[in-house]
């Protein structure tokens, strides 16, 4: 204004008190510290030399820009606590909005690791071939002015399916006249194994549990055919039994327990020794005196004149027992009988006739028994198990038996 040497400027929020002012010599002032999104008004008067004008009227009003509001974002799928089976495919979907602008992008994170982003609604990504683990997912939305917000976390789990496999590659090792080590391949997810064994042609009555893929048997009979079978127990489930595996214990040797010959061993008539893979007995007197003679002459089986002193009574060689040929063993289906009220037993008979069928738990007390008619060859026999409690049972038909599990 003409003659003005300065200007007095007052400003306030509309409806508020005049508490803030500034005196400037130019015709503008830069006002700071205002509140965003508020309507203000200001007025000005001219200060001349020795006098001043009235304040400008009406007051001039203006509104400060509103502050940028952060967007809003939430994960809509999957639901918190969802569960999947590996290898899993999971689609992550989020809703995002911005009240004073637009969404520029939505990023997805598993923990602190970014796993993808989407710039177009509906905002989603697809995760494939997920392995067994727990995943914690968040979505971060960014608006067109750079403001961002992160959703609440959603957690889901991918579980590994445990297939309880039938034990395979059955074998035996360290077979002696009265012992053997049973072996099979370890199965994934196995918590323990159920091992049954028997003398071939007899009933299944002996079993044991083991957490390893081998089991040592003792107290076996020499020169006999045995067979064993194995079931895998996993978490909450079990496999079927393996096919039976047969092996033969070593036959007892005639030399077992017989002392080894030694020169001038104080032998008398009837003394027995082993030498040269045989068992020899000292001859009666007067020949018995030569049993203590020089080895080159009278060592049993090798001395030049050994037959003057000794008689060969047995060979130390072993002859394995011949396997017993049997009809196929009974088979139960289903086995394990999970929730079943009835099982079917496949039973092979050599002749037509009647057989006694019994159901026996591990207590050894028969819980049911009946006489059934069988035909030569394969018979399909239905057995009601609805009244049985969960456990391991024997089905005994004549001289044959088969075990099954009800659970």
Architecture overview:
With 407 residues, this protein is mostly beta strands. 2% of the residues lie in helices and 48% in strands. It contains two helices and 32 strands. The protein has helices at 295-298, 306-309, and strands at 4-13, 20-24, 39-48, 51-52, 60-63, 72-77, 82-85, 88-97, 103-110, 113-118, 123-130, 133-143, 148-150, 154-159, 171-173, 180-183, 192-199, 206-210, 214-217, 225-234, 237-238, 245-248, 272-275, 278-282, 310-315, 331-333, 342-349, 353-361, 368-374, 377-384, 391-397, 400-406. The strands form eight sheets. Strands 7, 9, 10, 12, 13 and 14 form a six-stranded mixed β-sheet that branches. Strands 1, 2, 3, 4 and 5 form a five-stranded antiparallel β-sheet that branches. The protein is elongated, with a radius of gyration of 48 Å. The relative contact order is 0.08.
Rg computed from alpha carbons, rounded to a whole number of angstroms: 48 Å
> How much strand?
over 45%
DSSP strand count: 32
* Mean pLDDT over the residues: 89
User: Termini distance?
Assistant: 102 Å
Low-confidence runs of at least 5 consecutive residues: 318-325
SSE class: mainly beta
**Major beta sheet summary:** 6 strands, mixed
Helical residues, percent: under 10%
Shape: elongated
Number of helices: 2
